[in-house]
């Protein structure tokens, strides 16, 4: 188990942001707020199921490992989309038996998550790398994020890309700067900009959460501290639901409080679990003969589940038009 040391800077929670998207533009992007209202970091599948129902975008990105490529597929004819998917299948099929088993699909999806994280950080880095030298200096980050040339000009309550106060971000910056050259290359910038996905950064995130909520300073969170100020804005039924979640989902050792490891499990998304759930979903959608294997034929028959095309995007357009009409 990882040991966590306490850090003192206070973490500010980024407000929930909703983004409207147009046809062939996926909603996952670098502008999306990273944290939920309860303080946990937003999981990659946060909008897989939403008020509108099942969102195919997540499935397509989990297979393609790229938002940009998923958007490109949305512009293809169904035939071309199916053809390109067929070219990916032998790469998923690690043992060459013409079937994709659960382990193969899970490994592919986990790799897609890594690629998506890199794509997000590269897009963000391209904005901050003013001199186009392939790295981002602290000054470049200050200029791009806050519009200032020095730390003293940043407001005391201003937060950066990670939703953290500047002094905390600087600590994270130094931790991400493995070679100590005071600039971040693309690998290092990815660690900095997606801290919840990198183990080296997680102690800072965990201890920030503990610091802002641990009112009695005992190093753990009881239910009242877990709920925090949110409780005063909710009704009794909400409190009952949160109490049940606290006791049966978060408090693993059933001692009535959340220790550091339990706080980590609460606020840090588990990509392994998310991948498992996505495997279950895709198998339920395409395993027609229920043999717990996906044949190439089954995947291509249900290609719209795995990748988009102009046909699926046209369906999204119709939904968008109907939504606009209702507004």
UniProtKB/TrEMBL annotation:
Protein origin, superkingdom: Eukaryota
- Report keywords, A-Z: Calcium, Chaperone, Endoplasmic reticulum, Glycoprotein, Metal-binding, Repeat, Signal
Q: Does the keyword Magnesium apply?
A: no
Domain (EF-hand): residue spans on this chain: 80-115, 274-309
Q: Which GO terms describe its cellular component?
A: endoplasmic reticulum lumen
| Localization | Endoplasmic reticulum lumen
Keyword check for Chaperone, yes or no.
Answer: yes
Q: What does the subunit comment say?
A: Interacts with PCSK6 (immature form including the propeptide); probably involved in the maturation and the secretion of PCSK6.
| Name the record gives this protein | Reticulocalbin-3
Origin organism is Parnassius apollo (Apollo butterfly)
């Amino acid at each position: 188990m990882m040991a966590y040391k306490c850090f003192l800077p206070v973490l500010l929670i980024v407000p929930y942001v909703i983004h409207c998207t147009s046809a062939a533009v996926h909603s996952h992007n670098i502008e999306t707020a990273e944290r939920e209202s309860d303080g946990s970091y937003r999981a990659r599948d946060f909008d897989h199921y939403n008020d509108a129902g099942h969102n195919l975008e997540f499935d397509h990105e989990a297979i393609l490992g790229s938002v940009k490529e998923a958007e490109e597929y949305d512009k293809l004819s169904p035939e071309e989309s199916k053809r390109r998917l067929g070219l990916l299948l032998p790469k998923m099929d690690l043992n060459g038996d013409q079937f994709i088993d659960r382990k193969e699909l899970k490994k592919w999806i986990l790799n897609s998550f890594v690629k998506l994280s890199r794509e997000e950080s590269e897009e963000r880095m391209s904005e901050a790398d003013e001199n186009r030298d392939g790295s981002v200096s602290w000054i470049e980050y200050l200029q791009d994020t806050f519009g200032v040339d020095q730390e003293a000009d940043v407001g005391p309550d201003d937060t950066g890309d990670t939703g953290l106060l500047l002094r905390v971000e600087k600590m994270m910056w130094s931790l991400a700067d493995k070679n100590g050259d005071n600039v971040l290359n693309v690998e290092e910038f990815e660690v900095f900009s997606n801290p919840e996905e990198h183990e080296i950064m997680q102690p800072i995130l965990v201890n920030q959460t503990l610091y802002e909520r641990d009112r009695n300073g005992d190093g753990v969170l009881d239910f009242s501290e877990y709920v925090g100020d949110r409780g005063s804005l909710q009704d009794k039924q909400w409190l009952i639901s949160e109490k049940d979640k606290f006791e049966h989902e978060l408090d693993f050792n059933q001692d009535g409080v959340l220790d550091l490891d339990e706080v980590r499990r609460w606020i840090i998304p588990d990509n392994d679990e998310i991948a498992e759930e996505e495997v279950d979903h895709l198998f339920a959608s395409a395993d027609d003969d229920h043999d717990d294997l996906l044949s190439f034929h089954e995947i291509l028959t249900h290609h719209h589940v795995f990748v988009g095309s102009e046909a699926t995007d046209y369906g999204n357009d119709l939904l968008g038009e109907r939504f606009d009409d209702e507004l």
